[in-house]
């Protein structure tokens, strides 16, 4: 019997987007586990896993960028200056 291709098969871009979103979700879960854990050994293990997942996420994102699936644009210097000033004010209020 001949195999039929599923109409719902993911293409490369969709697969990478799914991988990227999964890595982001795992990062959030590890972040929660680190802040909720009380054992130093547990926290260290989760932190190591978190760091690895952060590297994986960046690897997927970088691959997507190379393939043209993710666009990265530099922010204008004026926008960066505005953001720096905004957060400098918040930091001063917290001090």
Please provide the count of β strands.
0
Number of domains as seen in the coordinates? 1
Count of helix runs: 3
Distance between the termini: 72 Å
Task: Report the major sheet.
Answer: none
The proportion of residues in beta strands is under 5%
SSE sequence, one letter per element: HHH
Assign an overall shape.
flat
Radius of gyration: 20 Å
Query: Would you identify the regions where 5 or more consecutive residues have pLDDT less than 50?
Result: none
Helix coverage percent = over 70%
**How would you state the average pLDDT, rounded?**
91
Structural class: mainly alpha
The quaternary state of the protein chains shown equals single chain
In summary, what is this structure?
The chain is flat, with a radius of gyration of 20 Å.
Jot down its keywords:
single chain, mainly alpha
Descriptive overview:
The protein is an all-alpha fold and 95 residues long. It has one domain. The chain is 75% helix and 0% strand. The protein has helices spanning 12-36, 40-67, 77-94. Helix 1 (12-36) runs antiparallel to helix 2 (40-67). The longest helix has 28 residues, at 40-67. It starts with 11 loop residues before the first helix and ends with a helix. The model has no long low-confidence stretch (mean pLDDT 91).
Ordered list of secondary-structure elements with their pairings:
Elements: H1 12-36, H2 40-67, H3 77-94
